[in-house]
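Problem 12. The chain below contains 503 residues. Write out its predicted structure in token notation.
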Amino acid sequence: MTNKKRIIRNLHPLEILTDEQIELIHKGTLEVLQNTGVRFENKKALKLFKENDCEVDMEKKLVKFPPDLVEESLKKCPSSFHIKGRSEQEVTFGGNTSCFLPFPGKDTIDLETWEPRTPTRKEFYEAVKIMDSLDTVHYTGSYVPYFGFKNTPAVMHMLEGDAANFRNSTLPLHCNYGNDCEIFAIDMAKALGAINLGVVGISPPLTFQEDSCTSAFRNLEAGFPLYIQSGATYGSTAPVTIAGATITNNAELMAGVVLAQLVKPGAGILVSDFGFIQNMRTGYPLFGRIESSLHQIMFNQIWRRYKIPAGNHSTGVSNSKRIDYQCGYEKAIACLLSLLSGANEIGFHGCVYGELSFHPAQLILDDDVVGMISRLIEGVEVSNETLAIDIINEVGPIPGTYLTEEHTRKWWKKAQFIPKSSDNLTYPEWMEANKKDCIEYAKERISEIIKTYKPESLSDKEENAIENILEEARKYYKKTGKITEKEWASYEKDLKSSDYPYA
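Solution.
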């Protein structure tokens, strides 16, 4: 499959901060980094910071950063970089381009009862095929579409997800970490000639845990760029004000940037905002709220000043437990504002509620949402041909018509975005079609894709390489006790079934 069409913003990005406000936030962030500092629970990182003139308290694992070092590290980040799938598929982050990653959910949902349940291997693999078929999905990830599937030990969820994506898609991968999973994820990518986007997750407030630091070192040493993500909840793990949450969010991300640039100057970095407001009555995060979008607009504007690619991951989630009106408007508004404000990467397709539920029907509907919004940010072409003055003069007033003109036949598909799963019928046609809604159209499209779409397969050599790496990981986790005997019993049965690997 050839590379998918990039989404290019031809509109001036939406901005809500003045230059003075940006400078206040920048200086405030540097002050927090210098006076409060960031906790790093990794000796190698602490030693590296100490060698580079940071104030380091080894006992408290606290690092305080000189402003000059932070400024220099920001300047070392490239303004754009790319990752690569196992085939020709590449994704470039930076500039005025945007790309989309499906937003994962822990479970699938029943479209009749709306209750969540663990997906099967078959459902996971089919969802990957659907993602691969959509023009608006540009790359995928370890926990995409789901966090795992039935009969799989938790410690193997990421790696089984990687394998499912490599087997059923040529899209580049954004790979998670923990329990040494990144070792095997890196091996898979190298075996297939791919370049992963290595994840470094921050633990707000102002903390990098051991696993995230280890992931940074391993991915940088492998020559992979980093995806550094902070995901605070405003009011609990960050200040309740949007401006205050921006300060801590940026301080956390900048600390990660400094680490990366000390390890490998010039390394590609994608910084990601994954923040939400807190429900002050229950303590749970609230999804799809306008405050998260305000934070993302500020975030995109600030990091565009630093010329560092930035992503938004609060866009793909809703508070609704159903694929309904609330789910649609919460996701669509967030996506619209994120794209208008210049996000280079957006986690969006497929998720319904929080990170807890995902469904291919939502994935299909979100494809139309992204298509429609992308048509907006592409803007309007103004040229002699699109102004159509000669055609206007030729057609004239009534009884003239543009329907029969060659100009109309040439331009209508370029001028109009045609949703694939929307109800576009008149009332009489709708009633004759058994009053179908968008979910019914999405189901039909799912069935058609599963039936007819054939992703590019792995070669026998590549498949053997993936399977050997998975087997190595299974042995490693069994030996270290991270796969229990009970987990292994159901997992082994699945591995020996006739459906394995369901590619």
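Discussion. The longest strand covers residues 80-84. Students who got a different answer should revisit the alignment rule from Section 12.3.
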